[in-house]
Amino acid sequence: MNKFTPAKPAGARSVDEITASRRLRRMRKADWSRRLVRENSLSVNDLIWPIFIIEGKDRREPVDAMPGVFRLSVDQAVKEAERAAKLGIPALATFPKVEMGLRDRTGAAILDPDNVINRATRAIKEAVPEIGIITDAALDPFTDHGHDGILRDGIIVNDETVEQVTAAAVLQAASGSDIIAPSDMMDGRIGAIRDALDANGFQDVAIMSYATKFHSAFYGPYRDAIGTAGLLKGDKQTYYLDHANSDEAVREAEQDLAEGADMLMVKPGLPYLDIVRRLKDEFAMPTFAYQVSGEYAMVKAASANGWIDGEKVMLESLLALKRAGCDGVLTYFAPQVAEVLKG
């Protein structure tokens, strides 16, 4: 016997005896068999593409912390919507970077029917009517302090904020938004928006609730993209969820569904897979995750340094969200993923 060959102990069981002939590698032996038993898959139909909108014409400003992501003037956003539609991406989620001269303590410019986000919705819907548009009625891009609500005496006031967010949602629906996705996390906002949409003839406009938006360190590049990074004083712990809590997330989702939400969102995505799974199991409702800017930036940075295979990690991270229970994902990778899947 070769001295490097391990001796089989007397009476040792064979692998077939140990496994009772249940060899789990059998269906992994070939590509065709792995595909045949694959439990989850990723398709272009799972993608929502968040894009950033700015004033002007023919403008594409790079977001430094998010390589490959740009702030787009309305005409450029229309071109990207046309590209998204050709790739089969079902929907866009639009977020504005508002000029400082238009910001104030209450975010009043969100109530301008011709603000940049409403103009972008109208332009995209006119050029690419088949693509879905999701808009956020939160105030943070419009305030001069970077918070998601009206700031009074150092406090984000809930009920006044809900009134303004609700009025903004109706204006966004009137501009052609298909789904209102209010991210401000104020109590009662979903019910107030549903009532107002219905009262104004927008019964067919859906609500995607940011039901579980956590107080997270993963949002940094996004705040740079919309121009609130240097404005924010204090933090958002009085209205975003504590990232240590999961029971509270279930209660928030339950409340939003009772108020009329059509679908739920978990934000951020990959660090909160347990929340996705709990919500899907508990409510069996359409459930989405937002793969946020920090998640995107980390993959891009590690890939640029040669530490990971960026494309494989991109696809794996999205499939992990699907496996956890997501029906779809908001991701800045959307066009890149669509190209890979198409190819």
From TrEMBL:
<dbReference type="InterPro" id="IPR030656">
    <property type="entry name" value="ALAD_AS"/>
</dbReference>
<keyword id="KW-0479">Metal-binding</keyword>
<keyword id="KW-0456">Lyase</keyword>
<protein>
    <recommendedName>
        <fullName>Delta-aminolevulinic acid dehydratase</fullName>
        <ecNumber>4.2.1.24</ecNumber>
    </recommendedName>
</protein>
<feature type="active site" description="Schiff-base intermediate with substrate">
    <location>
        <position position="213"/>
    </location>
</feature>
<dbReference type="Pfam" id="PF00490">
    <property type="entry name" value="ALAD"/>
</dbReference>
<dbReference type="GO" id="GO:0005829">
    <property type="term" value="C:cytosol"/>
</dbReference>
<dbReference type="InterPro" id="IPR001731">
    <property type="entry name" value="ALAD"/>
</dbReference>
<keyword id="KW-0350">Heme biosynthesis</keyword>
<comment type="similarity">
    <text>Belongs to the ALAD family.</text>
</comment>
<keyword id="KW-0627">Porphyrin biosynthesis</keyword>
<dbReference type="InterPro" id="IPR013785">
    <property type="entry name" value="Aldolase_TIM"/>
</dbReference>
<dbReference type="GO" id="GO:0006782">
    <property type="term" value="P:protoporphyrinogen IX biosynthetic process"/>
</dbReference>
<feature type="active site" description="Schiff-base intermediate with substrate">
    <location>
        <position position="267"/>
    </location>
</feature>
<comment type="subunit">
    <text>Homooctamer.</text>
</comment>
<dbReference type="GO" id="GO:0008270">
    <property type="term" value="F:zinc ion binding"/>
</dbReference>
<comment type="pathway">
    <text>Porphyrin-containing compound metabolism; protoporphyrin-IX biosynthesis; coproporphyrinogen-III from 5-aminolevulinate: step 1/4.</text>
</comment>
<feature type="binding site">
    <location>
        <position position="252"/>
    </location>
    <ligand>
        <name>Mg(2+)</name>
    </ligand>
</feature>
<keyword id="KW-0460">Magnesium</keyword>
<dbReference type="GO" id="GO:0004655">
    <property type="term" value="F:porphobilinogen synthase activity"/>
</dbReference>
